[in-house]
Amino acid sequence: MSRVIGIDPGSQRTGVGIIDVASDGSLRHVYHAAINVTAEASFPLRLKRIFDELCAIMMAYTPEACAVERVFMARNPDSALKLGQARGAAICAAVSKGVSMHEYAATEVKQSVVGSGRADKTQVQHMVGALLQLTGPLQADAADALAIAITHAHAGSSLLRVGIPRTAWRRRR
User: Fold this and answer.
1) Has 8 been annotated as catalytic?
2) At the N or C end, where does the chain have fewer CB atoms within 10 A?
3) Using CA atoms, how far apart are residues 53 and 34, in angstroms rounded to an integer?
C-alpha cells in the first residue's frame, strides 16, 4: 500500500487530495480539502500559507509520493505567474518533507480519470467520486487534486507493467 497526495495549486484555492493505492491497483480515499487563502493580506502571505498548510497535511498523513499539475499557458500572464508561484510553494512543501515529486499535464489527468483529455470539470468531479466511491458533491479544487493523485496511481501501475520510464511514453516527433 502506498499513499499519494495530489495537489491542484491555485493562488486563491489550492486543492489537496490523498489516496491509498493497494498493490492490486485499488484506490481508497483518505483525505481531501481546498486550502482557501483569499483572506491573507498579501500574495507572499498566501504563498506562505499554502506552504505551511501543505507541510502540516504531509506531516499528518505521510504520503510517499506527491503529484502536481504541470503549468499551462494562460491568457493572462499575471495569472500564469501567480499560478506558477503557488505551484512552487506546493513543490517546495513536498520536497521539504522528503516526498517524491511527479508532474502531470491537465490533459493527462483528464485522460487518466475520464478517458478524454478534453473532459470538463463536472465530468472529472463525477468520475473521481465514482472511482473513490464518494457520496455527495466534491468541491472542484479538491476533486482536481484527487484526480491528479489517481493519475499518479495509474501511471505508477503502468510503469510496473510496461517497465519503461514515463518519459519514454510519448512518441517523439
Assistant:
1) yes
2) C
3) 11
